[in-house]
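Practice problem: predict the structure.
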Amino acid sequence: MLKYIKHHLDTISGVEIYPIISLLLFFIVFATMLIIVLKMPKKNIEKLSNLPLDNDLKNTHHE
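Answer:
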């Protein structure tokens, strides 16, 4: 199966650029998310981290 795929990929001209593009896209998204999280105020992080707990407390009071 792998030989079949590799053979067809070898026949495509310029196919070596696709892994480079996908690595760059992954790195850009990862770095962007890291910057967003690091710049986020601590108050927002605490609020977001307590959301699952707040939701559980609201559900227990309705029963």
